[in-house]
């Protein structure tokens, strides 16, 4: 699987992936994380414009999408708990797959880890698939944050050397 920056011609396929992801979330018991229209097209356009949108490609198909944003992220300023580091970091947002292709989250995390030695991400408590992927890769739950609409999210971070040695 290849990861590359999204380009304008990817916009419609990206929006289709998000539509599929929302439907899958509902089917898996997580109807409220993204609702019916998150992320909005204008936000994805802004991500592409500033070079923060990435796509996962297998063959000639887009199979996943995510945004990688340089920290600090205002969403993470208030946390009930604590992140394990305050060093420079990347923040992963809006990670979604087509629902059929395995390994999208791992490919995303690996690519982001090549650009940043410290990563942060959040997800909804009901998003068991994402929570499982985060745990499997070595992300550590750090506490609770609140997103723009006031809803709660579980916040995670990834420090590769700390994670590696803490497993022994």
UniProtKB/TrEMBL annotation:
GO MF: acyltransferase activity, transferring groups other than amino-acyl groups
Superkingdom of this protein's organism: Bacteria
Alphabetized SUPFAM superfamilies for the sequence: Acyl-CoA N-acyltransferases (Nat) (SSF55729)
InterPro entries named in the record: Acyl_CoA_acyltransferase, GNAT_dom
Annotated keywords: Transferase
Residues spanning the signal sequence: none
Record-annotated N-acetyltransferase domain positions: 1-163
Protein name: N-acetyltransferase
Organism: Streptococcus danieliae
Taxonomic classification: Bacteria, Bacillati, Bacillota, Bacilli, Lactobacillales
């Amino acid at each position: 699987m290849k990861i590359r920056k999204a380009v304008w011609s990817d916009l419609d396929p990206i929006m289709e992936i998000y539509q599929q992801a929302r439907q899958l979330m509902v089917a898996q018991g997580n109807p409220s994380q993204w609702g019916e229209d998150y992320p909005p097209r204008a936000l994805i356009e802004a991500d592409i414009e500033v070079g923060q949108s990435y796509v996962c490609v297998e063959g000639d198909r887009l199979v996943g999408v995510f945004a990688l944003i340089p920290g600090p992220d205002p969403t993470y300023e208030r946390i009930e708990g604590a992140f394990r580091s305050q060093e420079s970091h990347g923040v992963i947002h809006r990670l979604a797959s087509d629902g059929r292709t395995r390994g999208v989250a791992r490919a995303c995390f690996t690519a982001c880890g090549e650009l940043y030695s410290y990563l942060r991400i959040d997800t909804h408590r009901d998003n068991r698939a994402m929570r499982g992927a985060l745990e499997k890769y070595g992300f550590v739950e750090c506490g609770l944050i609140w997103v723009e609409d006031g809803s709660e999210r579980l916040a995670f971070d990834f420090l590769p050397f700390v994670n590696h040695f803490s497993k022994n």
